[in-house]
Every structure is written in C-alpha cells, then in structure tokens.
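Structure (tokenized):
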C-alpha cells in the first residue's frame, strides 16, 4: 500500500464569494476531481471532528455534519506535488499555503509559483514522520 498522507484542503479563506451551499458544492466537486484524477485515494467533505484542535473556530461553527469548504483526503507522497499543482491551476491567482507537522514541529510554506513549490516539496519528501498536512487556498487580498 502506498504511503498515504492525511491532507486537509481549506477553501474557506479563498475569497470565492460563494453562499454556504455553493461552497459546499464546490468542495464536493473538488473532492470528485481529486478522486477522478487519481490524485487522492479518498476525498470527501470534512466533519468538524476531523479537524485538528487548533483549527480556526469559524470553520467549525454550525451544527451541520460536514464543514463546507473543507475537504479531507488521503494522498500519496508521490501525488503531493501533483495535487498542489492541481490546486494552483484550479485557484489561479490565489495563494496556496501548505502547513505540515513533522517530527513534532509545525512548518508553513506559501506557494505562489512553481519554483517555491519545487523547493518546499523537496524538503518535505525527505521527512519520514509527516503527521499532518493542511493546504489552505487564500485570497491575495486577505494576506
């Protein structure tokens, strides 16, 4: 079995200006695209209990079983770069932030172009103990 990583993809700060139901539909579509493109072994809307304790409270608010705008996926190490490239193309003009935890330390990398991504992912590929990865799509206006 491939070395699968638990990845959370957050669209809530992407500045997409969608109603909650539209954001949920966009998130479901993204999950379908990740699976159809064979980038993820599994992808689905996240539940509040799937999110880390330090997740911003606004994203967890509400009584709905799923959190619109947040997708959880199982992605192989080999598909991590392809997945980030895919997100970069899907959300062109947005900043992608990759937050990962390895060996007890949390790091944040902002991806604005392919060169940044290549350098960042080379470092991540060599880490044996990746514990969590969060990809956040952000509007450049909220930086």
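Design, position by position:
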């Amino acid at each position: 079995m491939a070395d699968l990583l638990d990845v959370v993809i957050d669209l809530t700060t992407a500045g997409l200006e969608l109603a909650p139901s539209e954001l949920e539909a966009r998130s479901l579509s993204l999950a379908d695209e990740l699976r159809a493109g064979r980038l993820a072994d599994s992808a689905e809307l996240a539940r509040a209990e799937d999110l880390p304790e330090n997740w911003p409270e606004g994203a967890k608010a509400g009584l709905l079983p799923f959190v619109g705008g947040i997708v959880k996926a199982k992605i192989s190490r080999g598909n991590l770069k392809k997945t980030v490239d895919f997100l970069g193309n899907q959300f062109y003009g947005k900043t992608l932030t990759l937050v990962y935890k390895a060996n007890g330390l949390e790091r944040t990398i902002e991806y604005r172009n392919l060169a940044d991504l290549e350098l960042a992912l080379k470092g991540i590929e060599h880490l044996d103990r990746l514990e969590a990865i969060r990809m956040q799509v952000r509007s450049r206006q909220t930086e």
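Reviewer-requested clarification: The helical segments are 20-36, 57-60, 77-90, 114-125. Residues 101 and 132 are 5 Å apart (CA to CA).
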